[in-house]
Amino acid sequence: xxxxxxxxxxxxxxxxxxxxxxxxxxxxxxxxxxxxxxxxxxxxxxxxxxxxxxxxxxxxxxxxxxxxxxxxxxxxxxxxxxxxxxxxxxxxxxxxxxxxxxxxxxxxxxxxxxxxxxxxxxxxxxxxxxxxxxxxxxxxxxxxxxxxxxxxxxxxxxxxxxxxxxxxxxxxxxxxxxxxxxxxxxxxxxxxxxxxxxxxxxxxxxxxxxxxxxxxxxxxxxxxxxxxxxxxxxxxxxxxxxxxxxxxxxxxxxxxxxxxxxxxxxxxxxxxxxxxxxxxxxxxxxxxxxxxxxxxxxxxxxxxxxxxxxxxxxxxxxxxxxxxxxxxxxxxxxxxxxxxxxxxxxxxx
Amino acid sequence: xxxxxxxxxxxxxxxxxxxxxxxxxxxxxxxxxxxxxxxxxxxxxxxxxxxxxxxxxxxxxxxxxxxxxxxxxxxxxxxxxxxxxxxxxxxxxxxxxxxxxxxxxxxxxxxxxxxxxxxxxxxxxxxxxxxxxxxxxxxxxxxxxxxxxxxxxxxxxxxxxxxxxxxxxxxxxxxxxxxxxxxxxxxxxxxxxxxxxxxxxxxxxxxxxxxxxxxxxxxxxxxxxxxxxxxxxxxxxxxxxxxxxxxxxxxxxxxxxxxxxxxxxxxxxxxxxxxxxxxxxxxxxxxxxxxxxxxxxxxxxxxxxxxxxxxxxxxxxxxxx
Lengths: 349, 321
Fold this sequence. Notes:
The complex is a heterodimer.
Chain A: H1 5-54, H2 65-95, H3 109-116, H4 118-149, H5 155-163, H6 170-180, H7 193-200, H8 214-240, H9 244-252, H10 257-285, H11 289-294, H12 304-314, H13 318-348
Chain B: H1 10-14, H2 21-56, H3 60-65, H4 80-87, H5 96-127, H6 133-142, H7 149-161, E1 163-165, E2 168-171, H8 182-205, H9 210-218, H10 223-234, H11 236-252, H12 255-260, H13 270-280, H14 285-305, H15 307-316
Antiparallel strand pairs in B: 1-2
Helix pairs in contact in B: 2-14, 4-14, 5-8, 5-11, 6-8, 8-11, 11-14, 11-15, 13-14
């Protein structure tokens, strides 16, 4: 089958329908909101004229206008949120107490299954390792780099280099790193960078992604590689926001860079540091693409989000999949509450 | 971001001036070490991508038998990999050109819809007085914490079987085939993006000067008019920030596409195809390297040219759900 542009036309047509729908919905809404009030205004004017002509008391100005505008401005967003997020989330919670085909209530069986099945406990432990390591290591690298390149020459170029992985999809990143971990049998020339390095030091080349628990750590490297840029950018902005006179005063007092870092920089960027760690923890809890692309969750590397996908969409176990999703939700809640409280304090402080 | 004013402990002052020779040497050493560390990190972060890029232009037999670093001692350049992975005839070759169009068809509306709906909602939440406004804002804000995994199963069911309440069909099944499935993906992405989008845009819109709004109201402008003529032009940076954010998110997304677009070449985006190739043809590096790069080109261009806005968006709200 050669590439044939004619075959792509239905897709482009569909895209065009989408764009037309967009213009129609959004434009239509705005036009409607423009036209209807002016129609009301004209009617009211007519009423006023009629009222003043007949000498009757003037009709009172209608008050519910604001409410009507608010209603139509919010309608699309609220409707979509209800259909796409609120109702499904409630249904998922209910499904998690039902069996695989969503026919019978099974109580807490899906949850006890989750904590008793060895392979799933393994998944939970893996997720824990991810959540402990990724935020910590990515933030550490991001912070180190942000401090090191601060006010250096070529700062923006240097930052772009680290930041770039953020534009790459998790799938792309997983392929990039799978190539680094690639393995060729002993005696053959290695094509993966890691095995080449190992071989050049006289070591034995390995199939890195097959050995648990090392493989989970190697997948974590991918996530760290992507997220360090995020940490670096946010922390770098925080470092630049430290008042210059504080830094200057410290410098005049002759503090060493080491003291400067621990006594000036660290306390000043603490709020940003917390935001970064919490944001990364939330993102890490939901990691899916990397695991799926690199190992498909085999060789003891699966994590909650990946297992949830497998249970619900590959094995048709809606109950167990939903229970995993709910568990993920429960894990995320305290992090987000902490995050919000933190943001609030910053705004007020 | 406010910063606490740290107080220097007494010990720090006692260290004294660094005008001694030893002090200067140490200082220079420090910058040296700093430069060295940052270079090492930069190299570590760049090399994997660089290796992929170099490999993608090497002939197949070369990729499979030697490391990409031999390219520099024995440079052999070819664009065959790209030719094959994009337009190749056999079904195993990738045929990424079609998937590329799918990615575009998925991404563009998935960015526009949430952008429009969220800015309307954010405006209402910031500048229209109505009862329960604060509660509405808090509710939408709080929805950011719902992981999209919570919505997948019921939403898919919503598309495939519709909604019926007590035997009465409220909404029939969508019954979409082939490229019509794009609509499902647009719908899902729009729903999932809204809480964050409303939050981010509300941050910007609520900070517009109050006098400006009141002046417009006094002049008799209605809310739609204020929204169109005053607010939209002023929040372009925020729109750009969210637009880029959402673009990268949707283009790079695997999970939502996998579930709502399926795996067929009529609808699946590049990420789905690449993940599939990495699974089934994990050793066909000539295709994987070129294919990965094909999927990276557009986001990289968008990202590098609009990085400023993206960074601003990141700094404005870091609670994406």
